[in-house]
Predict the structure.
Amino acid sequence: MAAGADGPWKERPDRSTIEKLNESEEPMAEDLNPHSIARTQYDNTLPYVDSLVGWKGMAEWLFAPEKIVTVTLPVVMDDGLVHTFQGYRVIHNTGRGPGKGGIRFHPSVAEDEVKALATWMTWKCALAGIPFGGAKGGITCDPSKLSLDEKRHLTRRFIAALGDNIGPHTDVPAPDMYTDAQTMGWIYDTYSMMHHGTNSLPVVTGKPLDLGGIVGRSTATARGVYFCTERFLASGRLPKMTTIAGARVAIQGFGNAGRHAATIFRDAGAVIVGVSDTSGSALAPKGLDVAKVGAHKDSTGRVVGAPGTTSGSPLKVLEAECDILIPAAMENQITMENADRIKAALISEAANGPTTPGADVILADRGITVMPDILANAGGVVVSYFEWVQNLQNEEWDEKRVDDSLRKHIYRSTDAVMARYDEMVANLPMYQARWQEMRPGAPALRHPDYRIAAAVVAVGRAKATAEARGVWP
Ligand code: NAD
């Protein structure tokens, strides 16, 4: 196998973060920078992506974000004072189509977080087989302290500041943490006011139904998690659990992804043993009443204290006795610190980046399987794609068409990941030998997991597209 002596590897550190952590005499703090984590995950794919090394610098190009836009957003607050916010939009890669990715309002929003989330979107869209690249956006703010008016002003100012960095054929935002259909409606309206006389509906997805939105978008992420989990279990890879019915499920996060997941998994016969939000965990080992917890959340703003549950810290739900754990909150929740205490047999990631690379190693050692974010939570972006098609064609899809098409997409990508995983495991000695030849002295490859397999499928597709297009000019 060609060694590619002057390939992209040489700029990279020789060893992965995990290896360094293992070798260190002093316990090192785990690197929780999302962009470093995205890089570690990307590096893990490279030994398996054929010929990536053959094109000089290709690996660096595929990882680098195409465009980073930072905007300053002054907003007149309700008290009459001007508050200045920072907004970001990162387009990671548009090789396979326009940028696609949510907009998040959260205090933790920072350039590296948005870069990581945009990178994961590139891999997610490629894996789902939809014609989009990856993008993400966010505003650093505490949405719990914003009035509706302030949120609307902030959203409009952000979209005006981004100008033609977004557009139906350049970059198409969607909802993410603490943004919703209403926020998407304001985004559409702002963009539309700046582009009179054109069909601007496809500029943003996740819109209200009365504004070109698609039926099933709000439940799509959770439904995708369900379809992925169902397909994986039906494959018989976890002999003790072949269906969702009867499984005990714990869910971290009770927003769009987590709350719908609780309902959908319950409807499929699962027992929901715990949910959580920022207020804490609501636990019930014998099963909680999802409707009652939802009603409590609606009236009090928190899941803690819901009838029939006991309370714990926000992270407690991750350690609940359960069969399936669904992290549906945010990044870096399952880390080297708590991975030893996870009791689930299967983790289906509704959130983006909930598990760190260090935790992945611990979970694998403990025989815990992970359905990774770019596979398990792709339902949202897949139905966003349907909404975009619906808007471009001035059509209206019905619920059955959306659900059947979503199931088909998620089953197909889950099958592709399982097949690639099997191939990587079967040919591990060959990949090992090839890697050693390319990088003499490199540590042995660790046994593949489904996260690496999913990223290998995705990066392989992004690479094939880049090769087919060539490097401009
Ligand atoms: P959301 O704003 O609707 O809900 C977030 C939930 O997480 C809230 O219940 C909040 O209380 C909870 N939460 C936040 N921090 C927490 C913590 N530290 N501990 C416990 N709970 C916490 O957001 P969402 O749209 O449901 O997004 C959740 C995750 O799913 C994010 O990682 C997001 O990127 C991912 N995701 C969302 C979509 C989508 O379509 N909305 C699609 C794919 C992935």
User: Anything to note?
Assistant: The first strand starts at residue 67 and ends at 76.
